[in-house]
Amino acid sequence: MSGAAAKSDKALRLAVVGAGPAGLAAAVAAADAGVTATVIDAGSSAGGQFYRQPAARLRARAPRRLHHSWRTWRGLKSRFDRHVAAGRIRLLADHHVWIAERVAAGYRLHALVGPEQRRSVAVDADALLLATGAYERVLPFPGWTLPGVVTAGGAQAMLKGSVVLPGREVVVAGTGPLLLPVAAGLADAGAQVKALIESTSRRALARLVPTLAAHPDKLAEAAGYGARLAAHRIAVKYGHAVIAAHGEERVEAVTVAALDAAGRVRPGSETRITCDSLAIGHGLLPHLDLALTLGARTEGDSVPAVWVDSEQRTSVPGLWAAGETTGIGGAALALVEGEIAGRSIAAWSQGPQRAWQDEDHARSPAWTHAEQKRRRLGAFFAAVDAVYSPPAAWTERVAADTVVCRCEEVEAGAIRGALEEYGATDLRTVKLLTRAGMGWCQGRVCGPAVSGLVAEHCGGRPKAAASVTAQRPFARPVPLGVLAGLDQPGPGPAGHEEESNNE
Ligand SMILES: Cc1cc2nc3c(=O)[nH]c(=O)nc-3n(C[C@H](O)[C@H](O)[C@H](O)COP(=O)(O)OP(=O)(O)OC[C@H]3O[C@@H](n4cnc5c(N)ncnc54)[C@H](O)[C@@H]3O)c2cc1C
Question: Is the model's pLDDT at 486 over the cut of 80?
């Protein structure tokens, strides 16, 4: 994209994909400086994962009780709402962006509208910010497809978004700091949390003590979760994993086992816990679809993320990224990255060579403050990330008849067959031979699992990345009628006030 759009007389049109902490903070910061923004989100209201709101029709009486950092959210939301009321920000909720294109004047986004997703509209912009967040890594094990087995974030989304529990007797399992708010939130809401099963060992977690000591706010947050778990008498088992879920119609029990240093089950350590639901998650992976389609550079082998410079600019001109699409780091980091991106876009709107940090140095210490905060939080999460990791040797516990790709119902035995009998050595060949990753979710769910099985066969460490999902043209499934409609006359003069209907 050339800088011409930025220098024209018209106000710069910014499009933001994602109304989570990063996208909201960016839109507010840009609007504060006079930029008009269209914020697009697949959800029915602003908030993203961390500040997910109950649907209005539920009339939840005390949504703040489901949330951490409620004051921060209220402050951000009221600034956002003021800009919406003044016409500087427009929110397109229930809009699922399925493709982003570079066009002569900047960017064009195509979004499927509403729960039906049968109608597509186009939004044009001079500058684009991707704040699409992350999704959960799911690793298969015997019984994981039983009803009642949900992801940890899914259980939390049910609670925050629909004010329902996944079950009455819940086991929370997997790995990562997300398990703490999930277990505490479910218990606060009335579920009996039978156990929290964390596969990272207590010894590995002890390495975090100096990091926590250097971040008193995070230490207090962790202590707060610890106190809530203790108040609910939730047993926490470190260095353990759920190795099977059992049940006929739905999950009725899980088998939990202790892991040795190599991540293998300690023989004889298996115990059974009865439950009616299991909330399980193995960490988060950045959403990369739109960024890859636009040709943005990524970094990181095991968990690729969008590369950004000090102003949250990607490798593609006119394209910024902030929040967990640039790496997993929590809501506070997403907020400050969003603010930096918004201020950077506002500076760029004055001319393509302009940057916020250059302008701000002369006037106020805002840049320095934001930059230091980002660095501090980034270092904290890098330390956290280095400690938590999915249990090694998990692929050994995946039985031949365990479904790995749910969309195409491909079992582990078929994937191993493609590797052992047909000599496949890469993900693409496995996909072509077995159809794993070819279904509705296009490998988003099974990607890390197939990747792990390939790595197991090829003698490498199971890769954590969702590499089978790498690059695909569309960020989500699109009806053929919508694709056909794209050949029809386009959306008229560029402008984010002019949506086009490609039905
Ligand atoms: C399931 C889940 C649960 C979490 N729970 C916690 C928690 O309890 N505590 C905690 O500290 N952290 C939690 N996190 C991490 C926390 O959500 C993040 O730190 C924070 O929300 C990141 O902010 P963000 O703005 O980068 O992304 P998000 O808050 O994830 O927002 C991204 C937004 O982009 C939208 N989006 C993505 N792709 C598209 C598209 N193609 N079209 C339209 N919209 C799109 C999504 O609908 C979403 O609203 C959770 C993360 C996940 C994935």
Answer: no
